[in-house]
Design goal:
Layout lengths: L6 E6 L8 H5 L5 E7 L5 E5 L10 H5 L5 E5 L6 E5 L4 E5 L1
The protein binds iron/sulfur cluster (2 copies).
One iron/sulfur cluster binds next to α2.
Length: 93
Amino acid sequence: MSAKKAYEIAVLANRCKECGLCISICPTKVLAVGSKPNLKGFYATVPKYPDKCIGCKLCEYICPDYVLIVKEDGGGKSIGRVIWNDEVDVYEG
Ligand code: SF4
Ligand code: SF4
C-alpha cells in the first residue's frame, strides 16, 4: 500500500479579498473564512482542515489574486500555513 500523499497549503493572507471562490470550489472542504482581518480588512481564507487536501490545486487556479500555493510535501501529514506580515499561523489535521 502506498503512503498517503501530504500537501502544504500556503495562504498569502494580505492578498485575499474574501471573494469565497476558493472555498466554493474545494471538493473536500479544506478551506474556510478565517477569523483575522488582513491589511485590507478582509478575513483571509484559512486551510482549516489540511489533512483533507487532495492536491487538486483548484483553489490555486481559481484565485484571482494568487493567494494560495499548494505543494506536495514529502509524505506524512499535510499542513496549512497562513502567512501574514510578521507571523505565520499553522493549521494541522
Ligand atoms: S488543492 Fe484542492 S483539495 Fe487542496 S485545498 Fe485546494 S481545492 Fe482543496
Ligand atoms: S484566497 Fe483568493 S479565491 Fe479565496 S477568498 Fe481569497 S481572494 Fe478569493
